[in-house]
Amino acid sequence: MSLAVRDSATMLRRNLLHARRYPSLTLNLLLTPIMLLLLFVYIFGDTMSAGIGGGSGADRSVYIAYIVPGLLLMTIGSTTIGTAVSVSNDMTEGIIARFRTMAIHRGSVIIGHVIGSVLQSIISVVLVGAVAVAIGFRSTDATVLEWLAAFGLLVLFATALTWIAVGMGLVSPNVEAASNNAMPLILLPLLSSAFVPVDAMPGWFQPIAEYQPFTPAIETLRGLLLGTGIGNNGWLAVVWCLGLAVLGYFWSTSKFNDDPK
């Protein structure tokens, strides 16, 4: 156990150093939710807020409060694309083959990637959240307990998506394929309740938006941050997160432990 912890900490430090020395990928992925936030607030904000308010008038602050939770989870999806690329880069450059010959805990390599990615995801969420606060987002009705639950949900969601991203990176033949394979992690929020309510979508499209991991997580985070009810979305979000984390863990460890051909 001490060997696993020590080696995992070393691999975590390695990944954080890489992120610090080559920040362009993280910054590029971080720009996507920030640009969407500014676009939907300042270009579409009045129109969208009037629609959400049932046509009772434009109130941009209402729409800011509505879309920020979805964009925070989209930020996590964007960050984990970088994880898939980083893992694929390690696999294709040969450093993993070198690690296999060294006396280190085998699982520490992907554990370092996972912990590093979760930390980067939370930092990215904080940055996007700061931009949201700067343009008018407020969470005055949430209690301290709801804030803690919201933070826990963000960490759990980041962990689940990171394990899936690691698996995508391991099965990709190159970094370009890894980036393409991980694109659903940023596209799924666009097909959820992040920007408009599910019941405002066409009837044939509503099941697509409703029965996917992002929608219950977004509704739960929205309820926690705004101090409103979350209904069944809370336990659905937790089930999705745990299911994806377990699936990603076994998928990633299985592919990583395969002997190289």
Automatic annotation (TrEMBL):
Locate the ABC transmembrane type-2 domain: which residues?
Answer: 24-259
- State a GO cellular component annotated for this protein: ATP-binding cassette (ABC) transporter complex
* Keyword tags: Antibiotic resistance, Cell membrane, Membrane, Transmembrane, Transmembrane helix, Transport
Q: Which GO terms describe its molecular function?
A: ABC-type transporter activity
**Localization of this protein:** Cell membrane; Membrane
Q: Which InterPro entries match?
A: ABC2_TM, ABC2_TM_bact-type, ABC_2_transport, Nod_factor_ABC_transporter
Q: How does it sit in the membrane?
A: Multi-pass membrane protein
Q: Which GO terms describe its biological process?
A: response to antibiotic
Membrane-spanning segments: 21-43, 63-88, 109-135, 147-171, 183-205, 234-252
The principal location of this protein is: membrane
Q: Which family does it belong to?
A: Belongs to the ABC-2 integral membrane protein family.
What is the designated name of this protein? Transport permease protein
**According to the entry, what is the taxonomic lineage of the organism?**
Bacteria, Bacillati, Actinomycetota, Actinomycetes, Kitasatosporales
